[in-house]
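Next up, a specimen:

>
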Amino acid sequence: MLDGFRPYTEFASNKVTDVTMGEILDLIIPGRQSPFVKRRRALLILSRVRLVALTFAGLTPLWIPVDFYIFEPALAASLAALRVLASIAFFLLVPFFRGADSIALARRGLSLLLAIPTVFFLISHPLLAQFSISDPAQQVVAAGYAFLPFVMIAGLSVFPITAVEGCVLAAPLLLAYLATGLLGYQQLPFASHLGALWLLVLVAMVATLAGMSQLHFMGQLVAQSCHDGLTHAYSRRFGVEMAAQMFVTAVRSGAPMSVVFVDLDNFKSINDRFGHDAGDNALLFAGTALRGILRRGDILVRWGGEEFLAAMPNTGPEGAKAAVHRLRDHGLGTRPDGLPLTASIGIAERIVDGANQWIDLVDKADQRMYAAKKSGKDRVIGCGDPEADAVSP
């Protein structure tokens, strides 16, 4: 199965306030989000990483005159050199991930963004500890260096992250803050330093919760925008993007991939005889039945009207046929006249059918669905069946 694809669960409501157990786990564990959420949060994280990096690249050197005014020249010069290096590091980070949309790269970019002030903090404190800081003004400025981790950890709140990611990203800064106290480099009394560490932990928790809230809101918006409102299958626009990426992944890894094209039989007669509400109910029942045969990693797309398309990565033709037979055994629901709702189904598989592009695989499944409809409806035609390539639309 493809990593990162969520189990197909029913969307019983579009209310943003509804939170299921699966959604809670999505906010805790990285990698559980849908591909659309992953891509969009990667884009958002990277854009904010670049913005924050550019901001700090400009602001970090501005404090150099204050250091020279407050501290001894030797200390001020060392801190100035450190600030210039940090500013350069921030500036180099700005274009580094431009155009990327991978969540792995987003995590790397965010980690690098936090690594720069962490290193700055670990170097600046031993420097400050080498000099006598007795003047109240010097103590105030030196204490400001001690609160750098608070600024960076609080900044996690602007990124859509999971609970695990928040803990992992905050850990280096927390450990760095603890280390300065244990090594005697703290700018505050040790007891106050430990109290500040406890406060830093609380800030990290609040920032992580804020990031999780952003992630949840993003997930809700993406779910509402990329799913068909009636059947809760993926809309065609988003489904095509998702399945096409599946196809590229399958080609790269040499894995099988099957597509099942489903067209409900005599659907127009339901609308004509019983009204569009009855037709909508039939579509809803069919969508629910189709989702019932899908596994984690499979996706269901409402292709248009009464047509559905299921993309099944890492699935050969026999596996796809077995899933379709389970669907037929279970049934698609009942028509308003009491008769069973049936469908004509075509199956295609990437390797067996020699599909070079995603659209070739869809066309092949579509042709076989059309052949099933022409040969009497309520049929399944898959790879290797005698009628598989006998009819073209």
